[in-house]
Design brief:
CATH architecture of the largest domain: 3-Layer(bba) Sandwich
CATH topology of the largest domain: FAD/NAD(P)-binding domain
Distance between the termini: 17 Å
Structural class: alpha/beta
Bound molecules: flavin-adenine dinucleotide
Strand content: 25-35%
Shape: globular
Order of helices and strands: EHEEHHEEEHEEEEEHEEEEHEEEEHHHHH
Number of domains: 2
Radius of gyration: 21 Å
Length: about 400
């Protein structure tokens, strides 16, 4: 294998590019944007993602610029604790303990590292508009500031996010799945949640006023994601923000008592592509599957795809596996999404709005497990590492 084209320099594309370039493979990374995306999206990376960040050689920098959270709490609207999940139960040096770093800052770390790789090139303002393939290679057609260009490689990987052009080229405009009947508004905000006794992450369980407030940096920036009426325009969500903040945040602050640095409404989607492979063209992360963000399974699952795809490609490169391992990649990653990520993420969202908060500690199966973890250290550790099930080691399919 001489060269791989990766469409999309989001986190998944950058991690795959870094892993492949470090293995000596030529990587051309094409991104439609002019710089790393700054929207308030992922910040929490669970154990399977941390494992791949370690393999890519960026984990120490991610830890240095981010932090490792102590615990997650679920609360009633008045702040009463329902249940908690400890990450501090794992020692700080535990190799795959959760890390927190906002997506744009993770992108900066990855971009710095990939620029040091002589076999990798990242090209901004390069929008892929068509993909194709024959027996010998796969290619992309790209709109660039200097006109339309064509580039070819052994494989093209679509890491181009939810609206993936690569996926549309393979399967048409429909992304199978559904949009949930709910709306979130994600904000990054400086506000003193600490003074209300909040833990590193706090999910409010409430039929109307559910929300998530999680620390995302060590300088006091929090992610505050709340529900709002579905079906409004972006302008309407922005206009409603002050009243939603005053109604929901502890202390009922007015504008001027907090500082918002990002705000973006999102629909909640559960979707999965028909296949993650068509010949020499592959899909990974949001281009291949989407889930709602509660429980932080989106990019964690996407980075786990990248680990599986990297091992598959490198197995082919080294002559340890034939191309059928890519079918296995597609089959297994799709199964993990269908059987694990989709149902768990749906349940994470249901848990926060569709039950009586005053009875949730006794009734909810996950909370019952957390309560057991309060006195049983092994149970607490198993919960903290529970998402390890989304990682899959593809080297077991090497034939040599
Ligand atoms: C509010 C919110 C909170 C979240 N929190 C978490 C969390 O805590 N943990 C977690 O694991 N996940 C979380 N997620 C999900 C996570 O943000 C996404 O799964 C992740 O960003 C997907 O990464 P990606 O690299 O696949 O795609 P993206 O980040 O979307 O990157 C795709 C890239 O492709 C480029 N691109 C698109 N089309 C083209 C084209 N035609 N040609 C060239 N380039 C193109 C784009 O410019 C972009 O840079 C959250 C999501 C939301 C909305």
């Amino acid at each position: 294998m001489k060269k791989v084209i990766i469409v999309g320099a989001g986190p998944s594309g950058l991690i795959l590019g870094l892993l492949l370039a470090k293995a000596g493979i030529e990587v051309e990374l094409l991104d439609a944007g002019s710089e790393i995306d700054k929207q308030p999206r992922a910040a929490h990376y669970a154990s399977p993602a941390v494992y791949e960040l370690g393999r890519a050689g960026v984990l120490e920098d991610v830890k240095e610029r981010g932090f490792q959270p102590e615990g997650f709490a679920w609360r009633q609207l008045d702040g009463t604790l329902i249940a908690g999940m400890s990450h501090a139960v794992l020692p700080i040096e535990y190799p795959t303990r959760m890390v927190v770093l906002p997506l744009d800052r993770l992108g900066e770390v990855l971009y710095e590292h990939i620029q040091r790789q002589p076999t990798a090139q990242v090209k901004w303002s390069h929008r892929v508009v068509h993909v194709g393939q024959d027996e010998d290679c796969a290619w992309v057609e790209i709109e660039t500031p200097d006109g339309v260009k064509r580039s070819e490689a052994d494989y093209v990987i679509g890491c181009d996010g939810a609206s993936s052009t690569v996926r549309r080229e393979l399967f048409g405009p429909e992304y199978p799945g559904e949009t949930l009947d709910a709306q979130i508004v994600a904000t990054n905000v400086y506000y003193d949640f600490d003074s209300f006794g909040y833990w590193d992450s706090n999910t409010i369980v409430d039929p109307e006023n559910w929300y998530l407030a999680a620390r995302v940096t060590t300088d006091g920036l929090w992610r505050f994601t709340y529900g709002d009426k579905p079906g409004l325009s972006k302008e309407e969500y922005l206009a409603r923000q002050p009243q939603r903040y005053e109604a929901l945040l502890p202390g009922n602050p007015k504008p001027g008592q907090y500082k918002i640095t990002n705000i973006s409404p999102y629909k909640l989607q559960q979707r999965c592509a028909p296949s993650f492979r068509v010949g020499k063209i592959l899909l990974a992360a949001d281009a291949a599957h989407l889930c709602n963000p509660f429980g932080g399974l989106g990019l964690t699952g996407g980075i786990a795809d990248i680990g599986s795809l990297f091992d598959s490609l490198i197995g082919i490169h080294k002559g340890l596996a034939d191309e059928s391992i890519l079918d296995k990649y597609s089959e297994i990653r799709k199964r993990i999404w269908t059987e694990i990520i989709d149902p768990i993420s749906r349940e994470n969202f249901r848990r926060l709005h569709d039950q009586d908060p005053t009875k949730a500690r006794e009734n909810d199966e996950f909370f019952k497990l957390c309560v057991k973890g309060e006195t049983d250290e092994q149970v607490a550790k198993d919960i903290a590492l529970g998402l390890d099930i989304v990682r899959h080691d593809m080297t077991q399919y090497y034939t040599k």
